Amino acid sequence: MFKRLPEVAGATVAITIDGAPFNARAGDSVAAALLLAGRAACGTTAVSGKKRAPYCLMGICFECLVVVDGEGARQACLVPVRDGMRIETQSPKTEPAA
Questions:
Q1: Which pLDDT score is estimated for 24?
Q2: Distances in Å between the alpha carbon of 2 and those of 12, 35, 37, 45?
Q3: What's the pTM value of the predicted model, to 2 decimals?
Q4: How is the chain split into domains, by residue range?
Q5: In percent, how much of the chain has pLDDT > 70?
Q6: Tens digits of per-residue pLDDT, 12-51?
Q7: With helix as H, strand as E and coil as C, how does the chain read?
Q8: I need a surface site. Which of 53, 67, 76, 93 has the fewest CB within 10 A?
Q9: Would you state the pLDDT for residue 91?
């Protein structure tokens, strides 16, 4: 679905997305890593249960909320990936770790 434009390869970082390992490129946003991993949906809405996905990719719409390292309601488009990061899709039932 989403492919990176041809360019010089950058350093990679190991992250997990819903428990599955994935190698992202350093400097990418969490939203970019999700899309490159084939994960269009970041979670579901509280009211209808419909899937949420990155939309504006600049922090305006709040459609890309995910859980990062146990902290919920993080905007995936604004958070850069880092080595060892744990990303989980967010749903109304997701309770961040205390």
A1: 94
A2: 18, 6, 9, 23
A3: 0.86
A4: 12-89
A5: 86
A6: 999 999 999 999 999 899 999 999 999 989 999 888 889 9
A7: CCCCCCCCCCCEEEEEECCEEEEEECCCEHHHHHHHCCCCCCEECCCCCCEECCCCCCCCCCCCEEEECCEEEEECCCCECCCCCEEEEECCCCCCCC
A8: 93
A9: 81
CA 45 distance to own-chain centroid:
16
Residue 72 burial by Cβ neighbours in a 10 Å radius (0-12, 13-18, 19+): middle
Query: Is the distance from CB of 16 to CB of 30 less than 8 angstroms?
Result: no
Exposed, middle or buried by CB within 10 Å (0-12, 13-18, 19+), for 20? exposed
State the CB neighbour count (10 A cutoff) for residue 66.
Answer: 27
Report the topology of domain 12-89.
Ubiquitin-like (UB roll) (3.10.20)
Residues 66/90, Cβ–Cβ less than 8 Å: yes
